[in-house]
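During data preparation, we tokenized the protein backbone, and the record follows.
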Amino acid sequence: MTINEIQDQIIDDFSAFDDWMDKYQMLIELGNNLEPLADQYKTPQNLIEGCQSRVWIQADHDKETGLIHFTGDSDAVIVKGLVSLIISVLSDHTPDEILSSDLYFIEEIGLKEHLSPTRSNGLLSMVKQMRIYALAFKAAK
């Protein structure tokens, strides 16, 4: 699936709920379903700056396919759901796809207006770091 197809699916999934408590519950469930990050990747270099809670993002580049695979974790349940969302959108795509993507789902599902400023900043920091990984892998070709 393309990044936009994944975003459209997320928008569709979240539109099933009118109440933000239900949407938060969905985020918590996404976080609970996120594969735990191996302790070996919970390192200072994988820790995302700008997040109130602790968030780790690990990136692996498959040189054969050109795809970047992201894994991540957080010590906070809602933030872990945000990690799961952003990984589901950007993981297993090429650096160019990641760098050129417009992540419109964040605004479309209402995250911008319903997250606290610190969580919103943390989400932007995660996206920024994932784009930095993509840029680094692209430059390393």
About this structure: The chain has a mean pLDDT of 93. The chain has one domain: 3-139. The CA atoms of residues 60 and 69 lie 5 Å apart. The domain at 3-139 is CATH 3.90.1010.10 (Sufe protein. Chain: A).
